[in-house]
Records
---
Amino acid sequence: MPISHEPVMELIRASMDPASRAAPRPVDSPAGRLVSAAARADTDENGTDRIFLLATGTTAAATGLTLVLADETEQTVDELLTAIEEASERGAAGGGPKLNALPVIRALLADQASAGEVLGSTFARDQGEFVDLILELADFTATCITIRAARHGTPVTETLADLEEMLKEFVDA
């Protein structure tokens, strides 16, 4: 099976769909259905190519947009991630979900092997948690796209086109 960036872009677009945020359970959302379909196809072939493509692709996308947002807000990446972590911790203390995407983003910023270790250990530990992490990374990416549009006036189509080019280089190379 040739590897392509397109499933990752499809997942990010699905994550931008308001139905993905309104679904009662993440797996019931448009994004969740895409990840579930990839996992089922991998299971049918006794593989993990599709699910790991989504994991690594969404990690790269989330990390890339983190770098862009840090630059646009004139913060260091660490300052931006720390602010997001603090907001996430406040939300989790109030009963909201914990943001598990940040350790993967930080790991990729350190080096690709570190991110691969985080993803691999999550998959080995709990495949349901791994699926949730992929969905969270895709949602984080979608949120970054929305923030760029709302705060910086960058059209969504422009960010998606830039992201697609970046993912082509990352995945298709």
Note: Residues 68 and 148 are 9 Å apart (CA to CA).
---
Amino acid sequence: MAIRHQVIERPPDAVWAVLEDPELYADWVVGTSASWPLDSRWPQVDASLAYRVDLGPWTFEGRTIVRRVESPRWLELEADSGRLGTARIAIEVRPWGGHALVLVDEHPLRGPGGALHAPPLDLLIQLRHRSMLPRLARTVERVAAAPGSTSRATAGGRARSGRV
């Protein structure tokens, strides 16, 4: 199982503000070049966003669907990559002192990825999360520091990451 965590030195509501904005996913999800809502209900159950991945001359689009949400603590998603299958991504945001502890648990669910799920695939997901969680922290920092931000986050935060 590919589980990673990161302490983001902002309160949980600042992290949640980023998670509930479907247009920000491309800013922190590794490999994604654009994201946009497919309906106005994000992040309610069954709401979805679309994303684009650019690999050299090839462009691929997929869809991510909310499967479970308990604001502002849990967000479980199913990323649908078409013929490659789907993946379950569970994001938990825990209060950690005055900061947020973010845990991400991702694994293949359906299709070839689910059928071929093995430790080498978990290693690739771990490497992806090693980049993704610091990107999430930077996005939270940027959004929280923006003029007019509705987040109650404070300035000057830093992030630490690691494996669970």
Note: The chain is about 25% helix and 40% strand.
---
Amino acid sequence: MVEWRPLRAAVRPVPEPVATPFVWAAAFAGALLTVGVLSAANGLVDPLHALLVLCALAALLGVCARFAAAPGTAAVCWLFLNGFTVPPRGELTWQGYPDAGRLAFLTVATLLGTVIARIVNARGAYRRITPGGDRDASP
């Protein structure tokens, strides 16, 4: 027999994403800290290292963000990447395809983090609201 329960009465089945301005502020602070640490550790020899670390940061921020925050998060990370790690350092320049590729990598990383979080949250919500819990488990 099916027992109907109101979902809003108790715990929300899916966590609410963090507000977009907070994610962008975290991206600003995280990218600033990341570039500073890489600069102090002499890790800015190759911009690829900074791109990979900033992609990981963007994916981590994407886990708790909305889909609408992805372009802004990627843009903030790209500004720090382009301004402080890609020669000429200290200047924002657009180099065409390389910068478009870097921006695309950062955007995909942010979206990937958001998609993974949505899938994990949806599976958890399904298990919480389904009678009997885990349907995937084999005896």
Note: The mean pLDDT is 85.
---
Amino acid sequence: MPNPRPHLGEPLALDLLNTRWIAAEGPQDLLTDVSGLRQWLTDNELTAAADDKTLKTVLTAREAILHTARGESTADLNTVLDHGRIRRTLTPTGPADIPETRHPEWFPAWLAADNLLHLLAAAPDRIKQCAHPDCVLWFYDTSKNGTRRWHSMLTCGNRAKATRHYARKTHPR
């Protein structure tokens, strides 16, 4: 089955936020059931059980990441992060950082929350929501000067340009 989401390929935390989008039919949510969770886990090459317990933890992480990305609250993100840790160890091939959670259903949620920490540490101003007023998608701005505005120039960027062009044609100065 083809992926229904319009924007893939963002870092894990933002990809989790992008499990909600706006389509012609209205708001969409990939994570309304276990099959949507299975799709998201597969998209991100995560091996975890696609069950109701994992779905609940991933939804909790999605809301926590959203509140943090919007600058509203960090408390929920810290609660998700409390469910896991990085265990540092020395392996036969050298040092390794191993993510661990107390309960397996928290593993994908914890990885997404941890990913947000990495994005915030690297460049918090590059975590952006698409500037189109009818779009809810998020992206990590990798442009050279950090001024990207749209999750995709082909969709939202062109829609905004077309709207401005139409306004100029129908309401000339």
Note: The CA atoms of residues 134 and 170 lie 22 Å apart.
